[in-house]
Design brief:
Blueprint lengths: L1 E3 L1 H13 L4 E10 L5 E9 L8 E6 L2 E6 L9 E8 L2 E7 L11 H19 L3 E9 L2 E8 L7 H16 L5 E4 L14
Helix pairs in contact: 2-3
Length: 192
């Protein structure tokens, strides 16, 4: 499930040995930013801390790692590494974005129809596409793909085009959130 590189393991052991209080393990927490992605943090679990019943305890090459049950789904195939270079040093946790099932239900179907019939044909001329990732409560999560990923105009396209059409046509939805990793866009249509 979680991979800890040798560099990270060595640094964790070094920091555990320097700790003023005994340490019984490492806690890794995922804070969701969308249904697909999360930000990760790490902290030591001190020996006098009570165990959380919801934590799953993993043994990774002799290293005890505590993971909250709400964080597990974001840490599938995650890698913990320690980077030390001219730019500085620190821990880095990376995990592949979660894969979700195709959203289901009448609201998701209406959003998908709106994307297929009105939105994607319009932005398709610029090499873009909007994918519906999830619908949770009154929030629709979308991902901008193709020419939209990394495009300088993507925020305006989302707010003034995609979001306004969805909110206008599907009153159950109150917010549209972008889950796109725009930094990895390889071929944006508009470059400012």
């Amino acid at each position: 499930m979680i991979i800890v590189t040798d560099a990270a393991k060595n640094k964790i052991i070094e920091l555990q040995e320097k700790s003023e209080k005994p340490v019984k393990g490492l806690r890794i927490t995922a804070t969701p930013k969308s249904p697909l992605k999360a930000e990760f943090s790490m902290s030591f679990v001190k020996a006098d801390e009570a165990d959380l019943a919801m934590d799953k305890v993993l043994d990774i090459d002799g290293l005890r790692v505590f993971v909250g049950s709400d964080s597990i789904e974001y840490l599938q195939e995650a890698e913990v590494d320690f980077i030390d270079n001219m730019m500085g040093s620190g821990f880095k946790i990376e995990a592949a974005p979660r894969k979700l099932n195709t959203p289901e239900g009448p609201v998701a179907e209406r959003i998908q129809r709106l994307l297929d019939d009105q939105i994607n044909p319009s932005i398709g001329g610029h090499g873009g596409n909007i994918a519906l990732i999830d619908v949770r409560g009154n929030i629709a999560y979308v991902e901008m793909q193709g020419g939209c990923q990394g495009c300088a105009m993507s925020r305006m396209t989302l707010k003034n085009g995609v979001e306004s059409l969805i909110l206008e046509n599907i009153p159950e939805i109150k917010q549209v959130l972008d889950t796109t990793d725009h930094a990895s866009g390889a071929n944006p249509y508009y470059q400012g």
